[in-house]
Amino acid sequence: MLGHSGSKVNGVTVSSAMGICASISAQKCCLFDVGNGAMIRAFSPPSAASKTYFKNTFLHESATQITSFANTPALCLSVLGFVVVVCSTKLVRKAEILDEVFSVELLTVEGIHVGSKFLERERGCPQKIFSSIDGKAVFICAGGGVSVCLVSSLQPLSFIDEWRVTEGDHSDCNKENHQAIHDIDFGPTISRPVVVAAGCSDGSLRLHALQGISKWSHEIQSNVVTSAVGSVLALPAQTLKGAIGGVAGFGSRFVGLGKEIGKEAFTVVKEREGPFFFRKK
């Protein structure tokens, strides 16, 4: 891909809301316009936070610190205008790696570094990172479980919650049999989460019910569906108002509803001889 100079691309992610695509290799993270494919900008891995981390360790005079984007597909775009990446910082002396630490880095889409979160050594390298639907938090899948962190310029990557695979501390697990989360998904959709499915490193699939499932089910079945069906035969303005304002969490896309709204709207505008954008004369 353009911008990586032939280097291996480790991960790609797309944000349809922002209209951009991000790809990452060892030394470059590139942002592309989804519409025309043009590269918007490219930036290198930040190293300031890692220098601070190794400041109080056994930094030898002959050791060299090398920071790069980690060899993982974990890459995330937040609709708030942030990019979340994973960096690997190695302390190298000649050909020997003295130490290595993984960190999650928060940057703006302009490439400005906002903050860092260093991961415990037992967590290893994150396998996947994805954003919440409102872009205010990210879910980091790594060894031992899933970490939920805040996406904010004031409190970058602050810890919110953690979902562990096993009880106890991560340090109690051996690296050989230490279980990691490779991927998670929310059902029925990420905008209306009820159940979380987690794919683990040993091939198992763990299912968890989120809090408030009964309240969610009652609200959706009793209120939202009834409101949608009750207003589906109204005039276009009423239908849109009922679908967007009165039907919480669903938006205006229902099965068969969008087609009916478009048909009714076109008929009403044609009868009133009013302007209609993109309508052929």
Molecular structure report:
The protein is of the alpha+beta class. It folds into two domains: 11-210, Methylamine Dehydrogenase, Chain H (7 Propeller); 223-272, no CATH class. It contains four helices and 16 strands. It has helices spanning 48-53, 213-230, 236-246, 257-272, and strands at residues 11-15, 20-24, 29-33, 39-43, 64-69, 76-78, 82-93, 96-108, 113-118, 128-131, 137-142, 145-150, 159-164, 181-189, 192-200, 205-209. Strands 5, 6, 7, 8 and 9 form a five-stranded antiparallel sheet that branches. A four-stranded antiparallel sheet has the order 1-2-3-4, with no helix packed on it. Strands 10-11-12-13 form a four-stranded antiparallel sheet, with no helix packed on it. Helix 3 packs antiparallel against helix 4. The two termini are 43 Å apart.
